[in-house]
Amino acid sequence: ETLVVLKHTIELIQQTRGINIDLDKIPTDDEKTMKLWQQGLTEGIFQFDATFVQQTLTKMHPTSFLEISALNALNRPGPIAFIPQFIARMHGEEKIEYVHPRAEPILKESYGIIVYQEQIMLIASNYAGYTLGEADILRRAMSKKKYDILKSSEEKFINNTISNGYNKETSKKVYDNILSFANYGFNKSHSVSYSIVAYKMAYLKCHFPKYFYAWLWKECLGNLDKTNLYLQEIK
Predict the structure, then answer these.
(1) Least CB-packed of 5, 93, 98, 230 within 10 Å?
(2) For residues 36 and 235, is the Cβ–Cβ distance under 8 A?
(3) pLDDT tens, 106-115?
(4) CA-CA distances (angstroms) from residue 84 to 56, 75, 185?
(5) Rounded distance, CA 126 to CA 174, Å?
(6) How many Å apart are CA 33 and CA 114, to the nearest integer?
(7) What CA–CA distance (Å, rounded) separates 59 from 38?
(8) Which residues pair with 186 in a beta bridge?
(9) CA distance 213 to 235
């Protein structure tokens, strides 16, 4: 449905306005589109049309695509609890802390909060000397909630970090943080991909609203609740 709306909205704009839009070349820092995100006007936008997400966007006031992507990953059972902390750190209302100084370059974009599985892989690689293959095994254990594997990996992780010159207490703290993350990990590759599609929809909605809404309405014919939601937003 999402891709259909994108495809036909572009076709309608080309047929009626003679404007050819290449969605792969639109800027991800478009000021007008970013204001739409900040106002939470995301009815009909893939992954971001729930009331809670719209309310969160107004509190978050995102200024970059990466922040939009992070919200997409955080809006899942489990990590949703970290959204207030993410926003507080983002706005400078809470001190940004890192599980370890070596993790700062990895977690800087998410204000010290582990949001993505790929961040865990990088921490395991940079801090504990895991190969990327070994780090991916850890990622898969997290995604499948295989706590037996995660627990048994603790000794290897700590021994590796000690070999790299870190003390056992700090290494245990880092691993415990990773273990707690196993409850809610989400792939950055998925979150960014989803958010790219959502951003394209937001761009069209912002710059070509009547064409965007026309196809949204066409797609929800017979659904009075959705039709009324879109109508309220247009007004």
Answers:
(1) 93
(2) no
(3) 999 999 998 9
(4) 9, 11, 17
(5) 12
(6) 27
(7) 8
(8) 116
(9) 12
Give the SS3 label for residue 130: coil
**d(C-alpha 66, C-alpha 61), whole Å:** 12
The closest alpha carbon to 213, from 16, 9, 7, belongs to: 9
Tokens, residue 193: 């991909």
Rounded Cα–Cα distance for residues 61 and 37 (Å): 7
pTM of full prediction above 0.90: no
Average pLDDT over residues 197-222: 91
140 CB contacts (<8 Å, ≥6 apart)? 146
The single residue listed with the structure tokens 């992780």 is: 157
